[in-house]
């Protein structure tokens, strides 16, 4: 019943004026010590802040 | 209902006494894009959020934000607890001190007191979730500016943790939005 | 606060944090079996760790059991602890 929520053939990604966020599918996980230190259990969601500009967050979000 | 667990979510370390930094960190305590605003926003919106996934997500992220509000309060408390009056005089914290001493209070870095107008609940899940996603981005950006000005390594470490949480929350709200938009495409519930 | 107690608290924080992450993930992915297994294992681990901590240092919640006198109120409270050993 929930399969369609994970489907890559999303229902609305061709719609105008609609936000689309990709669903995470759990892949790798950190161990418990690494998870707390990184601020997330999932390496896929880890996005460290680099104030020197090379990894400027807004570039990744653009 | 809420249960309090007598431990912080993160092992907070404060290395210095720094009233100026405390006056900036308090932005995330009582400011527009701070942790209390976030927590109360989600916990208020959850009553009219459709889908069980939506209700659970707003409840749990709202609760986590209150735990973050506790961490911010801890940072401010520890940054000033050993400060002498001379260390406070001439810093932005002095204005806070004359009203509140070294106590915590709900205002932002500029001294503006907290207000419920910092968030809304519109009884429209698409609207509410977009506000939630925007709130997470605003919090993330605020943490980045705070990381830029922090010269206490322990505080910076905690700020990085809190910033990373905003990114995860953004993803979860996005997923709830997807679920609701997909559900809408099948069933009109209003 | 001594090192041993601090270390136990940090381990509680670590497992507790894994549970926050698995719970948030499961809230939008209720059918992910692997995530559910990870969550349930961490949950069991947390209950055991909590029991061990509470037996030595008193309850973490005011619903927990306590020696005499009531240990829940004991200092330090969370905002009074400096984790400066990392």
Structure characterization notes:
The complex is a heterotrimer of chains A (62), B (190) and C (86). Chain A has 62 residues and is mainly α. Chain A has one domain. Chain A contains three helices and no strands. The longest helix of chain A has 7 residues, at 32-38. Chain A is flat, with a radius of gyration of 16 Å. Chain B has 190 residues and is mainly α. Chain B has one domain (19-109, 123-186): Ferritin, core subunit, four-helix bundle (Ferritin), CATH 1.20.1260.10. Chain B has eight helices and no strands. Chain B has helices at 19-25, 27-30, 35-45, 52-80, 85-88, 93-100, 125-149, 153-186. In chain B, helix 3 packs antiparallel against helix 4 (52-80), helix 3 runs antiparallel to helix 7 and helix 7 runs antiparallel to helix 8. The longest helix of chain B has 34 residues, at 153-186. The two termini of chain B are 29 Å apart. The mean pLDDT of chain B is 96. Chain C has one domain. In chain C, helix 1 runs antiparallel to helix 2. Chain C is built from two helices and no strands. Chain C has helices at residues 3-28, 33-57. With 86 residues, chain C is an all-alpha fold. The model of chain C has no long low-confidence stretch (mean pLDDT 96). Chains B and C meet through helix 4 and helix 8 of B and helix 1 of C.
């Amino acid at each position: 019943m929930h399969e369609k929520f994970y489907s890559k053939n999303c229902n609305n990604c061709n719609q105008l004026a609609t936000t689309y966020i990709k669903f995470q599918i759990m892949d790798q996980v950190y161990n418990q010590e690494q998870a707390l230190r990184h601020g997330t259990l999932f390496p896929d969601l880890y996005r460290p802040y680099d104030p020197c500009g090379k990894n400027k967050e807004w570039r990744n979000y653009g | 209902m809420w249960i309090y667990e007598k431990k912080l979510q993160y092992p907070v370390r404060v290395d210095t006494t720094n009233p100026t930094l405390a006056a900036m960190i308090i932005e995330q305590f009582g400011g527009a894009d701070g942790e209390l605003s976030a927590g109360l926003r989600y916990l208020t919106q959850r009553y009219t959020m459709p889908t069980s996934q939506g209700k659970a997500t707003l409840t749990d992220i709202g609760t986590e934000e209150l735990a973050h509000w506790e961490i911010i309060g801890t940072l401010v408390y520890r940054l000033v607890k050993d400060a002498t009056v001379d260390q406070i005089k001439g810093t932005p914290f002095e204005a806070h001190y004359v009203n509140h001493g070294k106590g915590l209070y709900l205002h932002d870095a500029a001294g503006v007191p907290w207000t419920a107008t910092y968030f809304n609940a519109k009884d429209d899940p698409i609207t509410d979730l977009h506000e939630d996603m925007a709130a997470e981005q605003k919090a993330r950006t605020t943490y980045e500016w705070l990381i830029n000005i922090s010269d206490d390594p322990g505080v910076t470490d905690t700020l990085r943790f809190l910033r990373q949480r905003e990114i995860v929350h953004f993803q979860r709200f996005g997923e709830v939005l997807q679920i609701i938009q997909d559900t809408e495409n099948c069933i009109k519930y209003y | 606060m001594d090192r041993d107690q601090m270390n136990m608290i940090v381990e509680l924080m670590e497992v507790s944090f894994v549970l926050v992450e698995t719970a948030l993930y499961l809230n939008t992915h209720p059918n992910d079996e692997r995530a559910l297994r990870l969550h349930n294992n961490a949950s069991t681990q947390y209950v055991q760790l909590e029991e061990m901590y509470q037996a030595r240092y008193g309850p973490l919640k005011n619903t927990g059991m306590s020696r005499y006198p009531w240990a829940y109120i004991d200092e330090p409270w969370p905002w009074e602890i400096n984790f400066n050993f990392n």
